[in-house]
Amino acid sequence: MKTVACLALKEGMILAEDVFSHKNDILAHANDVINDALIAKFKRFDVLCVNIKDAEDLSETHFQKIQANAGFRHFTETYKSCISYYKYMMQDLIEHDAPLNTTTLLELYDELLSCANTTDKLLDYLYNRLLDEDELTYAHCFNSALIAGIFASWLQFSPKERELAILCGYFYDIGKIMLPQEIIYKNGKLTDLEYAEVQTHTIKGFHVLKKQDIPDEVLNVTLTHHEKCDGSGYPAKLKGHQLSKYAKFISIVDSYEAMTSARTYRKPLHVYEVISSFQKDGFEKYEVSYLLPILQKLASSKIGATVRLSDGTEAQIMMLNPTQLARPIIRTENGQLIDLANMPSLAITSFLS
Fold first, then answer.
1. Less crowded by CB within 10 Å, the N or C end of the chain?
2. Integer Cα distance of 10 and 79 in angstroms
3. Does a cis peptide bond (omega within 30 degrees of 0) precede residue 328?
4. What is the pLDDT of residues 239-255, one digit of tens each?
């Protein structure tokens, strides 16, 4: 909503609020469309200014509202500047073994968090940001660092632990930068040889970083972030008790970032699709003491949101199902309460607010 002087009103604008005369008589209603007759009426009654709907008010989906938000636009400009610096640093590291400035990288996280004000909003901004094509290779690690900082805060990591988690995010997957991009972004299933080459990125990244003065925890995560607690990961098929807390933590961050990023074959998964995917994967692959609180926080952050359902109706998320976080209790437009856990044929398809 924005306030516009009546002298600056144009036909087609839409009123955001009712307009009253000095005697408190109503002159126009919210959602009335401005035309010459209304402008003349406001002039007769000495109305100086009115509140008009802006682009954010007129947006129909949450994505459109975020794109029209001034705070988001400021975040986007700051993000572009920060990732450009990060990209330069990673290229200099890989090509010239240039020393790393980890202090500056931690400052980038703080700068972007300050743009969003809260961890919830930072996560929302990341989800709704449109990436430039030349950012894609670097955005995975860059975004993972931001997500790692958010999740570490949610898990009440100490300040030192949170910093280590952020640094792990910045560096754990840099080996992929050294792989052929046609394999990384292949539209279709990888061949056995291609998949084997992708798996080498943990070793490649480790060999680049071992020459640097970085914490051992960060170096270890570069090598072990694809290991799973049940021993089904790679390269060494380690199990949970053999993995550091940061390896188990970054494994969750890596999966979340991958699911919430657009792919050539699908849109980013929304919160409840992400939760469902983690649940289908089985908690045995991840450190439950980290994963469950993160999923609970993700699910609870959407209480009160308006969503569109698979049958086309709109509803509001009212409360969570503790045992089925991906299937909340909702209230439809006619006031009906529906427990999605008991309605397997009905699903949340998109967020409207």
1. N
2. 35
3. no
4. 999 999 999 999 999 99
